[in-house]
Amino acid sequence: MSQNKLSVTILGSSAALPANHRNPTSQLLKSDQSYYLIDCGEGTQSQLRRFHLKMQRIKVVFISHLHGDHYFGLLGMLNSMHLLGRTASIHIVCPSDLKEIIEVQLQAGGGRMQFQIEYSFTDRVNDDRTLVYEDDQLQVDAFRLKHRIPCTGFVFNQKEKPRSYNAAEGAKHNISIKDIPNIKLGQDYVNADGLVIPNKQLTLEPPSPKSYAFCTDTLPLDNTVEQVKGVDCLYHESTFSQVETKRALATYHSTTIEAAQIAKKAGVGKLVLGHYSARYGDLSILLDEAKSVFDKSILAIEGEEINI
After folding, report:
1. What tens digit of pLDDT does each residue of 108-162 get?
2. Structural domains of the chain in order of their starting residue, each with its CATH number
3. N or C end: fewer C-beta atoms under 10 angstroms in the chain?
């Protein structure tokens, strides 16, 4: 049967620095068997090992912006991939300055990678969704957030799967193995008596494609509501409690209430809170605030896999 499983594992949920046993931002998005890394804060490769997630299966890395807590773990991870024998290329979607940062560090250490690094740059992204990556699993669009430096949000949309063959129904019509590939391609089946069996009768509907939006390090924006409208799951930073609204504004971040308001206006399926300030050891106050506005709010907890 066709699968369309989409999930995200939280690797890091802390803002700015490691604190309260939490790591800087990083998430692993899985679409069926394909792995995509979103941001790569310090300690990301250790978290991948800790949670038994295969680092070498990551095919694309998305970097939202160039504050260190969102990419300082990248070079170390790439080097470990090299040392472990990776030869498959990796794709990095990022601000263009990151390419030079990686190359300078490699040159300074006399290092090299035995695999190719391919880049797509987010510099051209504006308020509207811009396609930044696509493969057989996902279409990924980016849009501009508002932080102290250029920062982008990402929307990951799964592609629709083909219909799958219904073996039980096929057995009723004595369909041979050689006819199954054509049925999978959408053809009807004509039996020995000339009776046409419609393709829809012999196949199963694929699961509905899922969508995930990632919005970190930003002031709350009306435009974000438009860009993430109707997604199945939204991650939106909630660095501060509502009592710290002035602090959030001064640092270009969002509060729990502001994140929940965006989720509610956008009509998303669920909201994941994260990027917590180090001042919060107990996160319950953040969750309670968000749920007072948008009941389908949950906390980003490191090691937890969120099914979308």
Report:
1. 988 789 999 999 999 999 999 999 999 999 999 999 999 999 999 999 999 988 8
2. 6-161+206-307 (3.60.15.10), 164-204 (no CATH)
3. N
